[in-house]
Amino acid sequence: MATAIALVNSRAARQPTLGHLLFGLYRTLQREVYDGLREAGFSEIRDAHSHVLRHIRPEGMRLTSLAAAAGTTKQYMTYLVNDLCALGLLEVLPDPDDGRAKRVRLTEYGQRVYDQAVSISRALERRWARRVGVERMQSLRDVMQTLLTEDTDAMS
Residue 101: which of 69, 50, 66, 70 has the closest Cα? Predict the structure, then answer.
């Protein structure tokens, strides 16, 4: 009996953790998207910009909200926002809800970059769906969405 338990435990120890698998898939997706952006002529875009592009909402966001959504410090987000403003992807405007605050939003050029990134991401998802099957891909998406929703609800 102890041998059977040790065998099960040793197999489990060799399996990658879910976090490792999710991170590996994310890195594959990120590499595909940002390499694709550079190939599409957006050579100034770097992987680090994903902290902004992945989280910014169409109506724009306050820098502090953007940093919180990305899980980064305000200082790092300021650096990224300044970089993207210099590249012409973002603009900083007065916040319509609070005259003292600023809102960061995509420029027209930034929206084109964002749309291209989403297009590349969706193409990779379709390739993955062809590999594993559409139903399994949809199941994966459903499970991930459920877990994210439950975790978000629990934090509220």
Answer: 66
DSSP 3-state of 54: coil
45, burial (CB in 10 Å: exposed 0-12, middle 13-18, buried 19+): buried
For the chain, the average pLDDT equals 90
Distance, in Å, from the CA atom of 81 to the CA atom of 51, rounded to the nearest integer, reads 10
End-to-end CA distance of the chain: 45
Tens of pLDDT, residues 15-43: 899 999 999 999 999 999 999 999 999 99
Quick one: which of 81, 73, 76, 75 has its CA closest to 102?
A: 81
Q: Are 56 and 105 in contact (CB under 8 A)?
A: yes
CA atoms within 13 A on the CB side of 1: 0
